[in-house]
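Please predict the structure of the following assembly.
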Amino acid sequence: MMRPEALGWLIDRHAAALVLYARQWCAAPEDVVQEAFIKLCREHPEPDNVAAWLHRVVRNGALSAARAARRRLRHEATAAARQPAWFEPAETLDAATVTQALQGLPPEQREVIVAHLWGGLTFEQVAELMSCSTSSAHRWYSAGLAALRERLNVPCPK
Amino acid sequence: MNDLEAALKALRPAAELPRDQVLFQAGRASAPLRWFWPVSTAAMTCAALVLGTLYLVRPEPQPVERIVYVTQPQPPPPEERRVEPPREEPPRETPTAPYQPTEYRHLREQALRWGVDSLPPPAPLQESAGQPQTLGSMLDSMNKDKGSGVRLP
């Protein structure tokens, strides 16, 4: 049984990234992440890599929630307009602009970037999560970063 | 990690996850399920409802008529009176009752009741009263009675 301190640390460490990860597919990512943590407490024994396990559970839950929501909502544009910002306001980059740029990426590129940058997963773990090869994950990541750089007007480093 | 990656990573994902609620739900979910008391409570509640329903809708008990023949006990016949014969009181003893030398008790009661003077005179001795008995005569008489050849010195 997982101790409350360990669970609290995991929530503080991964909850926000998991919410961002789930937000790519569903409109209520907090519910999906909450269910993932509850499911983690029921796991006996605990998974070896908790972060990768949480991302997988959140991914499956978010996809299921997206399918259910798609049946309910007829107008995707209305639903997209209600979506809150993906990031908290920051000084370096505009959160709304980054959100729009991420939303405009192809799904596999966006998923790799979110899982690697904010989720902290390695490319091997991302590849296992997405059921693809490591090189494919790395290639999608590089392509996504290039697209973001272009959309955010960030010059290439010399 | 280049500058874009660092800038993107510096962005904090907006998350409104209720931390305390997640901890509470997770702790509740991790507790082992105990089915005994809920199941037993539900079973007993169902049993109580069924019994209460049966009690409310049960039919009125119908009286059962039975004819029971009871034989009346016959009074006992009158007992015949016994006619006891009148008691005959023993005759009063008088000092003049016939003397029986073997009855010591009778003599004793008579002496206590009427005094020593009321006792009858002792029976006369068989031997001649004139001659006093000697040891030799007594031995002779004893040897004569037994008829044996034993002789005392």
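The CA atoms of residues 71 and 109 of chain A lie 26 Å apart. Chain A has a mean pLDDT of 86.
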